[in-house]
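Archive transcription. Copying these from loose printouts into the bound notebook so they stop getting lost. Printout 1 of 2:
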Amino acid sequence: MIVQEFIEWDEFVRCLCIGQEVIRPIKYDPKARKYHPELDFMPKALHDRVVADSLTLVRALGYDMNSIEWAIRDGIPYAIDFMNPAPDMDIYSLTPDHFEWVVKAMADMAIRLAKAPSTAPRPSWEEFLKGRPVRPGPA
């Protein structure tokens, strides 16, 4: 269970994260469930922090495809939803420009992985849980 504060946000950003390498911050209105097409909607320092923090999260989770939602209040980004390894990537949701970007990013990642599969260890629940002591249940 996760308990978190509800953030009364000034801005809302949803980042599409592909291949643990590229991040596309998109202005999003959760009330209207609508993506906005403009790209330069955040100050550079805030943009750079959202991208860097998004990369940190997807790399820690081991996700090659994810979306992360940021509620921004008083210029501070709060990650409020960051475990979405099957994000909505439909053209009618994203808008054509964002859709074109995500298709290209996914294709580039697939081609890169096909040419040179990663040798880095991947997070694994099986490995994580292996060897943990088993607690005796009630008698």
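Printout 2 of 2:
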Amino acid sequence: MEKNSLIKRITGSREASLLLVLLGLCIIIQILSPSFLTAKSLQDMVKNNAVIMIMALGMLCVLLIGGIDISITSTLAVSGMAVGMLLKYNVVHNTFLLFLIAILIGAVCGAAIGLVISGGKVLPIIATMGFMYIYRGFAYLIAKSQWASAENLGDFKNLPWKKNLVLDF
């Protein structure tokens, strides 16, 4: 009887069912491609998805308190574009300072949305949807209709931190 109740609890839990599906998919992919769950493969996945994982942690915090933020990619776009342009036009060369600037821009963007939601009593979905377009517009204005890719960053080959940079597109 206990075995049935354990199976019933596992299959009745949405999270446990999703975990079982994920494990099943990982096993199938590992059988089809033996290099899937190697240390190198897992390390590459973490490196290439670090930004997404950081955004997911922030989104997790928002979701845990019952909110939603659909402007997160636009916030990333405006902070990334600002830092990219600072680097492109040789305004700032210090990597640590660039990270601080990006974090500060993201914090200001998040605080603006938070003030509108809490002070203006606007629903989070409405506020973040509006700010999503505002921040995309800011990114466009900051860029002056230019693209700030790695190839356009000026003397990119001589930057001191370039040795540790992984650019997998």
